[in-house]
């Protein structure tokens, strides 16, 4: 049976003219080849030319006849480009071999050589067709002379049936522009009433002519705003899957993918609790096409992260967007449990006024203990200070003195000691294996009688059975809970007890927070090499704690890492690059999109008239001026990008760290930040201020090194064991004084490059290991391993100091020598890189 709109195969024949034309083309080539060959080989050129022309005429005719029959009989003239290649290879090989036999030559050489010619010819023709289709959708004014020549009647154009079109789409054989070129403004007229899957809405942008990565959003996107969605649709083909029961989600995903093709990105909205857990049962239809799952929530315990990792998908969450609203909820619950507002409201509603109410506790002057002083905890500390609460906190790693002073907090190394000193405790750490059940019977036992507990983090961090016992015994006077072990069907005790103030996991669900979270997951500007990513983590509990520096780790087997910010919004800062070409490549795309990078790593060509982009906070800071954005407005960047800022300095993470820890200090003095460091540091007072700031940042970097590698360092082992013993409450093994451990400050270098690649003055604070993922070539290594790197202690430089002339000295072209053992690798960077990894393993275990 023939397809609708196509001629029947029985009525289709092979025209003789194209066969003769193919033979004529082959014969002409043969005449030319034979004539030239005859001249070069001292044969009779005319005889050689005629014989070769006959040979190639026979080959061309037989090849085209065989190819046309194969395409007609085997593929019914609907062959894909791959199938056409197979047909050309088979027909050319058979023709060449047969003609060789007819001329008393060997069959196999003719078969192999002619098969190769058939493959090359058909492959080239396929590419030419693809290019022609792409050029058809481009404005003529943007085409080169060669492209306009290709866009001519010499290249045939076929009409595709619906079946052909669907087949080529499924096999991804149509170029980006061909697909959209066949879909015009009359799309809805072309589709039948039953073509769209019920419950799936396509947010179609008719102004976009380029094929875009398909992104499916679970739940409405209306809260993000029409303008934002319109901007997002410039890069992505956005579809919305309406809310449905969890049992139907898998089948709905399967139907959607079967109907519309694979999903490149899956976005999970804020109202996702009914779908928990997101595991293989629900998400399996996304495999293997989906590259990223972006959640608008901050938690990740509801995801089967190991399974997602094994499928090669990225998993991201959003914490920064909901940080302050969550702190607001924690503060609200604190005031509610202090003042017993629930019972007061019930009494007022019952008409008994305050007959049965007792005076409540005044929060002013009380002590609030925060478990996990991360982003949320810091917001809460600021808000608690306004109510005259004394704030103490427990992290596994103490924050710097400057940060403690900024937030007015006091550190307790022991969790139990902090709990014992607190009138109220707020849980602000995420849920991990280590923090599950963190607050249990032992912890409630050491708390003050009549203390208050607030949990806005995750339910399983607090052992619910122990909490109920503590509430019943009076050990805990009241509790404010926004999260529970089981949601939404939580323990009935909390629904009925007048000692518990409850909220339906609502802390981060504000209009502004949802909008921010959605935009972080949808747009998230960044500049990062996705082929070798580092992810910003905030595991934040007591195990890695919320140090002042974010934690960086390599992804595990292309797996998930629980991100503090979505990896789409990891970092947006300038790289300190030695190679100017690298800088240009990175800075030309200050606004890049992770979905676009993942789904189509090649540069997109604008297929429609360009539209004016929205103003970017990085403009006009481009190329070598890109650091200026952080100097001008550091508050507009997240805490993952800008670590700290003051009127004098901004401290940021280097986008492409060359070591385990790599920070940049940016002076903000407009009279200095455009000066070369050799000139700027001639000012003694300015140099002194830079040294003071560098000393402060060096302590932070050293603290980060200890947090990352202290557990494996032999010199830090006793210190780590003492901290573990203190956390476990084993008083017999806790020493009187905490061992000093390894001096990580000696592993930090502070200095500048003799020939900076960025226009704004910047100072490197970098660990000595030189084992960062972005250390990728000789110049990178030598820029930190030769006198090209000038440490702050060397200033001011003498006038005749050779470091003032780095190009003349050729530092960057020096032999590669291991910074630790001194071994000379010449110019063999790959060998040096492997050696550095071995040295790194030994160095961190010292």
From TrEMBL:
HIT domain span: 640-768
Residues covered by the D-isomer specific 2-hydroxyacid dehydrogenase NAD-binding domain: 332-507
One Pfam family cited in the UniProt record for this chain: zf-C2HE
Enzyme Commission no: 3.6.1.71, 3.6.1.72
Ranges annotated as spanning the membrane: 12-34, 46-66
CDD domains reported in the protein's UniProt record: Mand_dh_like
Keyword Cytoplasm: yes
EC category: hydrolase
Aprataxin C2HE/C2H2/C2HC zinc finger domain ranges (all copies): 785-842
InterPro entries cross-referenced by the UniProt entry: D-isomer_2-hydroxyacid_DH, D-isomer_2_OHA_DH_cat_dom, D-isomer_DH_CS, D-isomer_DH_NAD-bd, HIT-like, HIT-like_sf, NAD(P)-bd_dom_sf, Znf-C2HE
Chain positions covered by the region annotation Disordered: 597-623
Occurrences of domain D-isomer specific 2-hydroxyacid dehydrogenase catalytic (ranges): 226-524
GO cellular component: cytosol; nucleus
Family of this protein: Belongs to the D-isomer specific 2-hydroxyacid dehydrogenase family.
Function: DNA-binding protein involved in single-strand DNA break repair, double-strand DNA break repair and base excision repair. Resolves abortive DNA ligation intermediates formed either at base excision sites, or when DNA ligases attempt to repair non-ligatable breaks induced by reactive oxygen species. Catalyzes the release of adenylate groups covalently linked to 5'-phosphate termini, resulting in the production of 5'-phosphate termini that can be efficiently rejoined.
Name recorded for this polypeptide: Aprataxin-like protein
Organism this protein belongs to: Trichophyton violaceum
Lineage start: Eukaryota, Fungi, Dikarya, Ascomycota, Pezizomycotina
């Amino acid at each position: 049976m023939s397809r609708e709109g196509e001629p029947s195969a029985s009525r289709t024949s092979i025209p003789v003219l194209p066969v003769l034309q193919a033979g004529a083309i082959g014969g002409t080539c043969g005449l030319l080849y034979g004539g030239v060959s005859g001249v070069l080989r001292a044969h009779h050129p005319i005889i050689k030319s005629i014989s070769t022309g006959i040979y190639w005429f026979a080959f061309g005719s037989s090849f085209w006849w065989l190819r046309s029959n194969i395409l007609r009989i085997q593929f019914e003239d609907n062959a894909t480009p791959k199938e056409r290649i197979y047909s050309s290879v088979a027909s050319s090989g058979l023709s060449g071999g047969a003609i060789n036999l007819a001329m008393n030559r060997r069959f196999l050489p003719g078969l192999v050589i002619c098969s190769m010619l058939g493959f090359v010819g058909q492959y080239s023709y396929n590419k030419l067709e693809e290019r022609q289709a792409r050029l058809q959708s481009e404005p003529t004014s943007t085409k080169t002379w060669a492209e306009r020549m290709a866009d001519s009647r010499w290249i045939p154009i076929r009409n595709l049936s619906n079946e052909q079109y669907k087949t080529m789409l499924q096999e991804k054989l149509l170029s980006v522009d061909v697909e959209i070129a066949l879909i015009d403004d009359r799309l809805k007229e072309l589709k039948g009433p039953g073509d769209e899957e019920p419950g799936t809405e396509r947010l179609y942008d008719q102004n976009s002519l380029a094929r875009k990565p398909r992104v499916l959003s679970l739940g409405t996107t209306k809260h993000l705003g029409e303008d934002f969605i319109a901007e997002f649709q410039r890069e992505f083909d956005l579809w919305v899957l309406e809310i449905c029961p969890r049992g139907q989600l898998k089948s709905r995903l399967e139907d959607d993918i079967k109907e519309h093709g694979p999903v490149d990105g899956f976005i999970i909205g804020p109202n996702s609790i009914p779908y928990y857990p997101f595991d293989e049962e629900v998400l399996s239809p996304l495999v293997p096409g989906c590259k990223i799952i972006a959640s608008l929530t901050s938690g990740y315990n509801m995801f089967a992260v190991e399974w997602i990792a094994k499928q090669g998908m990225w998993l991201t969450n959003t914490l920064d967007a909901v940080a302050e609203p969550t702190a607001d909820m924690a503060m609200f619950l604190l005031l509610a449990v202090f003042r017993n507002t629930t019972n007061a409201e019930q009494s007022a509603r019952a008409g008994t006024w305050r007959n049965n109410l007792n005076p409540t506790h005044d929060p002013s002057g009380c002590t609030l203990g925060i478990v996990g002083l991360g982003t949320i905890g810091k917001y809460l500390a600021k808000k608690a200070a306004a109510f005259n609460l004394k704030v103490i906190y427990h992290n596994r790693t103490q924050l710097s003195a400057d940060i403690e002073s900024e937030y007015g907090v006091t550190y307790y190394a022991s969790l139990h000691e902090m709990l014992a000193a607190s009138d109220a405790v707020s849980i602000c750490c995420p849920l991990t294996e280590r923090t599950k059940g963190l607050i249990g019977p032992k912890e409630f036992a050491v708390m003050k009688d009549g203390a208050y507990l607030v949990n806005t983090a995750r339910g399983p961090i607090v052992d619910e059975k122990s909490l109920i016992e503590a509430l019943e015994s009076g050990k805990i006077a009241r509790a404010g809970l926004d999260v529970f072990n089981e949601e939404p069907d939580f323990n009935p005790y909390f629904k009925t007890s007048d000692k518990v103030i409850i909220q339906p996991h609502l802390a981060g669900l504000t209009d502004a927070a949802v909008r921010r979270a959605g935009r972080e997951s949808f747009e998230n500007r960044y500049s990062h090499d996705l082929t070798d990513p580092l992810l910003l983590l905030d595991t934040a509990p007591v195990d890695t704690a919320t140090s002042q520096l974010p934690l960086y780790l390599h992804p595990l087997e292309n797996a998930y890492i629980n991100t503090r910010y979505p990896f789409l919004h990891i970092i947006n800062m300038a790289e300190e690059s030695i190679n100017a070409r690298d800088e240009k490549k990175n800075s030309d795309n200050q606004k890049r999109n992770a979905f676009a990078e993942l789904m189509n790593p090649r540069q997109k060509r604008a297929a429609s008239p360009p539209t004016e982009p929205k103003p970017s906070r990085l403009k006009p800071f481009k190329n070598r001026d890109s650091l200026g954005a952080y100097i001008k407005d550091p508050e507009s960047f997240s805490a993952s990008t800008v670590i700290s800022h003051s009127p004098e300095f901004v401290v940021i993470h280097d986008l492409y760290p060359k070591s385990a820890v790599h920070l940049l200090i940016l002076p903000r003095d407009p009279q200095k930040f455009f000066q070369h460091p050799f000139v700027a540091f001639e000012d003694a007072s300015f140099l002194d201020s830079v040294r003071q700031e560098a000393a402060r940042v060096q302590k932070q970097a050293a603290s980060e090194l200890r947090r990352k590698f202290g557990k494996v360092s032999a010199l830090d082992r006793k210190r780590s064991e003492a901290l573990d013993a203190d956390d476990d409450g084993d008083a017999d093994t806790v020493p009187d004084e905490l061992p000093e451990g390894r001096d990580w400050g000696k592993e930090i270098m502070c200095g500048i490059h003799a020939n900076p690649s960025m226009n704004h003055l910047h100072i490197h604070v970098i660990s000595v290991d030189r084992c960062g993922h972005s250390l990728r070539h000789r110049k990178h290594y030598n820029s930190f391993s030769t006198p090209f790197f000038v440490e702050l202690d060397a200033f001011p430089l003498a006038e005749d100091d050779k470091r003032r002339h780095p190009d003349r000295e050729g530092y960057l072209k020096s032999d590669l020598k291991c910074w630790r053992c001194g071994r000379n690798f010449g110019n063999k960077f790959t060998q040096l890189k492997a050696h550095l990894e071995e040295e790194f393993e030994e160095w961190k275990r010292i």
